[in-house]
């Protein structure tokens, strides 16, 4: 099968490393649809592609993960066979290399039925899932308009698995009274 350059989605590589990296990606998507993992870590998978010699960036991989997640969840909700999924790939085939499409078909043929039977796939929430919360206390000591503030605040960072499977971090600051409302002491 040699090497190929798709020119699409930032993928240019030999077929064997692409197959292995796509296989790992599809397996993570299946795990996410089974609610076994909260999301698909795009950065980690992108590093796996790059380590295998596959030219890939996080933004392009995120697009691929979104497309494959949508395909798998739609196929599960509609109880599609591997053949029906292949037919449904339509425009996606032009976007992905042939090797990637073969892996998608293979994974669906092997593991698709387990998702179809899973109630979790049919009733998937369309909101993100919080997978980690971190906070730290800080002290504002001065600003442009005030020489001496000495004002405490809390910086919170939430790691959220989006419905698409991507893991995102969201940060914000709260005053101490705002934080106490979020974290009432019994």
Structure description:
- This protein has helices at residues 15-33, 42-51, 58-77, 82-88, 90-95, 98-117, 119-122, 176-182; strands spanning 3-5, 12-14, 129-140, 151-161, 167-175.
- The protein is α+β, with helices and mostly antiparallel strands.
- The protein folds into 2 domains: 3-122, no CATH class; 129-182, no CATH class.
- The strands form 2 sheets. Strands 3-4-5 form a 3-stranded antiparallel sheet.
- A hairpin with a 6-residue loop joins β1 and β2 (12-14).
- α1 packs parallel to α6 (98-117) and α4 (82-88) crosses α6 (98-117).
- It is elongated and about 70 Å long.
- The N and C termini lie far apart (65 Å).
- The relative contact order is 0.14.
- InterPro entries: COMM, COMMD4/6/7/8.
- Belongs to the COMM domain-containing protein 6 family.
- GO terms for molecular function: NF-kappaB binding.
- Residues 129-186 form the COMM domain.
């Amino acid at each position: 099968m040699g090497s190929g350059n798709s020119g699409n989605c930032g993928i240019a590589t030999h077929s064997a490393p692409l197959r292995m990296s796509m296989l790992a990606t599809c397996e993570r998507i299946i795990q996410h649809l089974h609610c076994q993992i909260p999301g698909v870590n795009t950065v980690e998978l992108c590093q796996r592609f790059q380590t295998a010699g596959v030219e890939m960036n996080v933004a392009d991989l995120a697009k691929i993960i979104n497309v494959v997640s949508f395909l798998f969840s739609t196929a599960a909700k509609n109880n599609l066979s591997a053949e029906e999924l292949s037919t449904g790939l339509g425009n996606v085939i032009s976007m992905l290399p042939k090797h990637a499409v073969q892996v998608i078909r293979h994974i669906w043929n092997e593991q698709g039925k387990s998702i179809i039977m899973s109630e979790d796939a049919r009733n998937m929430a369309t909101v993100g899932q919080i997978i980690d919360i971190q906070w730290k206390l800080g002290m504002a000591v001065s600003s442009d308009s005030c020489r001496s503030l000495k004002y405490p605040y809390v910086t919170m960072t939430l790691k959220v698995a989006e419905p698409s499977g991507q893991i995102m971090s969201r940060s914000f600051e709260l005053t101490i009274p705002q934080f106490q409302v979020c974290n009432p002491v019994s």
